[in-house]
Known about the structure:
Elements: E1 2-6, E2 9-13, E3 17-18, H1 20-31, E4 39-43, E5 49-50, H2 52-68, E6 71-75, H3 79-87
Parallel strand pairs: 2-4, 3-5, 4-6
Antiparallel strand pairs: 1-2
Helix pairs in contact: 1-2
Amino acid sequence: MKTRKTGTTWSVKLERDCSIVDVEAHTDKFRSMPGDLKKIILHAADVAEIDTAYLQVLLALKATARDRGIDLQVRSASPTLLRICRLYNVAL
């Protein structure tokens, strides 16, 4: 996962494989997100593998953003990400 902060926007590029292997490290990155954010942009076009554990991390990020008044946008969600969201009847 690559991140970049520009002003009050934090861009997060998700990797091809989003699985439990990376959950702890990526959760730590999300927990350390800058405090002055107005917007988070998730770039998810490359996601080819995602499991339930990683989806939970993304849903937690969504809830945290909502609670802090941060606009969370998902850009170019891959078919794989869309499929797992439909499977669990959730939206990012």
